[in-house]
Structures are given as structure tokens and as C-alpha cells.
Design a protein that fits this description.
Strand content: 25-35%
Distance between the termini: 23 Å
Order of helices and strands: EEHHHEEEHEHEE
Number of strands: 8
Oligomer: single chain
Length: about 180
């Protein structure tokens, strides 16, 4: 994808997945500074100004064909971001990509990701030509593990104490989904 391409937009029965805009910075900050969200997320920000790094990252992923991230909005409030989902670390050569997502706590346990992720996974397997979608999850993040398994991802192993976060080593569970396994 180049910066000039039309950004793919998706609708589900309850949500709109759209391009993340600069105007979304306050919502991104709200999510990526929330202690509940960042407990299992690899990025956090302590000020609105610092969140600009994340906004730039979303834009640069698309411009450099390294991934795409969508803002998640309720259908009735398409300008109000409640979370984000998308792909990064896209290897065009090897046809794999990494999935990531976050959601404001007020929308947890409502099936948001189970409803939204199939649209972008389908896009990865069709329009982006991806053969494999990967995800890494802290084993303690049971809700995230459940949504991945519900979507058909296979637990492929756990990398023990492979990441340092806030002074402690974390293990990460690795999940994968191949286009040949995708039923969505």
C-alpha cells in the first residue's frame, strides 16, 4: 500500500473500522495511557504530546507498506474511537504479518474484537496476499487468548521471559493462523 492508496474501510453489524486520523490522538492517548489497557500492551504514553509517536507510527506503517491499523468506532458514533486493530511487521517477501489490537475497558467483554478482527484478517489474506497472520500475547491475558482461539489461531508455543517490561521479564505466547486454516 502506498500513502496515495484508498484506505480500506469495513463495517460490521455494530462497528466501523476506518483509517486512524490525527484528530483521534485524544482517544489513542486515552487508550494507551489507561492502566488496564497497557497492562498487557507493549506501548504506553504519559502525555498527549508523547502520543504523537503512536500517531506517526500508524501513518508510517501504511506509507512504508509495513502494515495497516484501523480505528474501531461504534456505528452510531463513527468519529469516536473506542479502540484499534491492525497489522505491523509485514513481510511481503515471506507473506506474513503480525496482528495487534487494543480496546477501551468500557467495551471489554462485548465481543468487539470477535466481530471486528475477521474483517481485517480477511483483508490480509485476500487484498494483502498474506499467507500467515501471527499474534503474540502475554499468557495472563486470557481474554485476548480466547478471541484468538475463537478465530482459529493455533497456539504454537511460548517464548519464555523474552521481553523486559517495567523491570520484569515477560513470556509471550505465539499464535498463528494460515490462509489454508481460515474459515472466515
Amino acid at each position: 500500500m502506498s500513502g496515495a492508496s484508498v484506505f480500506p474501510r469495513f463495517t460490521t453489524p455494530r462497528f466501523i473500522l476506518r483509517e486512524i486520523q490525527q484528530a483521534d490522538i485524544e482517544a489513542v492517548y486515552k487508550g494507551l495511557s489507561d492502566p488496564q489497557v497497557i497492562r498487557h500492551y507493549g506501548v504506553s504514553f504519559h502525555s498527549l504530546e508523547a502520543t504523537q509517536v503512536q500517531m506517526d507510527w500508524y501513518r508510517e506503517l501504511q506509507e512504508q507498506s509495513e502494515g495497516l491499523w484501523w480505528g474501531i468506532c461504534r456505528a452510531e458514533t463513527p468519529d469516536e474511537l473506542i479502540g484499534a486493530c491492525g497489522f505491523n511487521d509485514w513481510s511481503i517477501e515471506h507473506r506474513h504479518i503480525e496482528l495487534g489490537y487494543w480496546l477501551l475497558p468500557g467495551f471489554w467483554r462485548l465481543g468487539v474484537m470477535a466481530e471486528c478482527l475477521p474483517a481485517i484478517i480477511r483483508h490480509a489474506f485476500t487484498a494483502m496476499g498474506v499467507h500467515r497472520v501471527e499474534a503474540v500475547v502475554e499468557p495472563e491475558n486470557v481474554a485476548s487468548t480466547r478471541v484468538l482461539e475463537k478465530l482459529g489461531f493455533i497456539h504454537e508455543g511460548t517464548r519464555r521471559e523474552c521481553e523486559l517490561k517495567q523491570g520484569r521479564f515477560l513470556s509471550l505466547a505465539s499464535y498463528g493462523l494460515l490462509v489454508t486454516e481460515w474459515g472466515g
